[in-house]
Design brief:
The structure is a homodimer.
Chain A lengths: L10 H14 L4 E4 L2 H8 L14 E5 L2 E6 L4 H7 L4 E4 L4 H4 L1 H4 L8 E4 L5 H12 L7 E4 L2 H7 L3 H23 L7 H14 L4 E2 L4 E4 L20 E6 L1 E3 L2 E2 L2 E6 L5 H20 L6 H14 L11 E3 L6 E5 L12 E4 L2 E4 L3 E4 L2 E5 L4 E3 L10
Parallel strand pairs in A: 1-5, 3-4, 5-6
Antiparallel strand pairs in A: 1-2, 2-3, 7-10, 8-9, 9-12, 10-11, 13-14, 15-18, 16-17, 18-19
Helix pairs in contact in A: 8-9, 10-11
């Protein structure tokens, strides 16, 4: 029988919050397979090295906290996921299952994460659960823990801010050495090196360094193109620190800014400031998006703002909420979001400016210190 | 209606091979969601940035080759996946579906990849397929394309070898600068930098640099521990080049090797050589594993060889076949596998030596040039 150990803070609060959500849905427990959710609820850090290689899963129910993993991660399981019973499946998941099976008989209605469980793993667990009784339901949930994760506590916000400061420090050094003739790839590599030097754990995502016409592609990959005088260079990158991501976009012009650049840049910046001033708890995500979009539309560039205004950032680079024109959710205090309007003109280039902000009751607090914006 | 364009080689051969496998199973087409399979069959390079963020999927059937992706990847879809109809779902997958739906009416029995499709995406596609007719089956397949991928063609083997040479070059430089007092993390960072300098596209996986007792953990993460005289240092890392991975393990001893190290090292090397000499097409993967395992068992260290002998390497670091004691598959010519026996002694450290080899009809050809093994 599994002995209960206390789960330390902040994981305990998160688990209690999850249990409350499960209760609302009359679910007795949940299988957690999404890697960031797993870490958020337990402190277990290993990521999943390949899509088809899971480092483990949690089973959480009333009075029940199990971390299942294979022997490779035994040490991490014991050190990192305090309060969780380490179920090390030495003989493979199925053969080892009886070790925990008996403790799970209180779980009468199981949930799983439909967005992160592969169909195959779903079938495997469904079979294992049948071990408890043929009629036990195994039901999909959608973004249940992601919604809890969206609202950050103080310590998470501090960690994100530290990650962002590393990112901003890197940006400030990189623009000092920006010269025509450097390739986008060289600059991207410089970003990577500087993140390491400044103590970041690595990149939060593949960085974008896009010059001239490449800057017209919102998700350009750094190429061997040399940056040139007389064109914009768009940066979008972020570091990770203690598991938390940051996300920063800036656009600079090499040489003397043209009138077109000044016009586009000013409009994007105006849209960003407008959104930063207006977002707060209680506003819908579509209304947040509209704050910036309306400025760009009025400026005559509406059709060139091709993506959403922003997204949540935390253990993942892209998480809830989504500040987009298509689905209205409520902004809540503690959410950390990006505010990143952009204008992309095919053949010419683009401008994107991205800050991060934490949603508060009456306003939002921009987390960025960097104020290197042009003031045309 | 979708116009048919010729698919260029080598993708055409791969698609034809897949169609043959589908026919054997009476399946009229398949939805391909696994990122490496997608690239293997079409040339479409984007990876999936997050577990819940797909860059796209293929639909392949008789006379049918579609690449579905969102507008972010429109350019890549057209440039990279020649011969595939680019289905860009601008209004979201569901709303845009009618654009391709009519062309899919010949697909009477669909397959999908059970290991890479999330339960949620499975449901979404199942609904879309119902669009064609309520009773159209949507059936799971397991490792179908992975099995085709396991046997490499000449050009793939050349690419993997190039990736391995980059990795070996990095190792040779790193050991030149190995000094007591360097931390495992510093050395891991050096590996990363050198891969970049030598033209690699990046790391194939998170590198292992494990010294002293840390080397007893087969999957140790580089720590702040300083490497010391009188202990082993275990390296396991690899680069990527043009999408293909390499994987190399070496163990070196700082200072004068102890008798224990000499004994363990010689045994591991003997097991490796024995396996390299014995593997060939037609042998089972369990027999391959036993070639090395029997040497280590005879030497009295059987219980300390805690993992499988090896695995396939290609577009993914870990792919088919698995050279393990648990499941017997046949080795086939063209498979590229690692041969990596190891002995791990808790508290003391470990030794792992990993080469890569291509399976041939009558033997196997080791791809490594590095011959820096100790000869005790």
């Amino acid at each position: 029988m599994i002995k209960k150990q206390p789960i330390p803070k902040p994981y305990l609060d998160r688990v209690l919050c999850l249990l409350k959500e499960l209760k609302k849905r009359s679910l007795s427990g949940i299988l957690v397979s999404q890697p960031e959710n797993r870490r958020y609820l337990s402190g277990f850090k290993p990521s999943d090295p390949q899509l088809n290689e899971s480092s483990g899963f949690l089973i959480i129910g009333k009075g029940l906290a199990i971390l299942g993993t294979d022997p490779r991660f035994e040490e991490e399981a014991q050190k990192q996921a305090k309060g969780y019973y380490p179920f090390i499946y030495r003989k493979g998941l199925e053969a080892s299952w009886p070790e925990v099976g008996i403790s799970l008989k209180t779980m009468k209605k199981w949930a799983f994460e439909a967005d992160s469980l592969s169909f195959h793993t779903f079938l495997r667990f469904k079979k294992l659960i049948r071990f408890q009784g043929n009629s036990i339901p195994f039901l999909p949930t959608y973004q249940l823990i992601e919604e809890i994760r969206a609202q950050k506590d103080r310590s998470e916000i501090k960690t994100i801010r530290r990650s962002l400061f590393i990112t901003e420090g890197v940006f400030q050094e990189v623009i000092k050495t920006l010269r025509p003739g450097k390739t986008e790839k060289e600059i991207a590599w410089q970003l990577k090196q500087l993140i390491h030097q400044k103590g970041g754990d690595g990149l939060a995502f593949d960085p974008i360094v896009a010059s001239g016409p490449n800057a017209a592609l919102p998700h350009a990959e750094p190429s061997d193109r040399e940056i040139q005088k007389g064109e914009p260079v768009l940066f979008d990158f972020g570091s990770k620190w203690k598991g938390y991501c940051s996300d920063l976009s800036r656009t600079v012009f090499l040489g003397r800014p043209t009138d077109r650049f000044k016009e586009v840049y000013s409009l994007v910046r105006k849209a960003q400031v407008q959104a930063e001033k207006g977002i707060r708890a209680g506003l819908t995500t579509t209304a947040a998006d509209a704050l910036a979009r309306s400025v760009i539309e009025k400026g005559g560039y509406g059709e060139y703002f091709k993506h959403s205004l922003g997204h949540g950032v935390g253990l993942a680079t892209h998480e809830l909420p989504s500040l987009s024109p298509s689905k209205a959710d409520l902004l809540k205090s503690g959410m950390v979001v990006t505010v990143e309007p952009g204008i992309y003109l095919p053949g010419w280039g683009g401008v994107r400016l991205e800050n991060m902000a934490v949603i508060q009751e009456k306003n939002a607090k921009v987390l960025n210190k960097d104020q290197s914006f042009y003031n045309f």
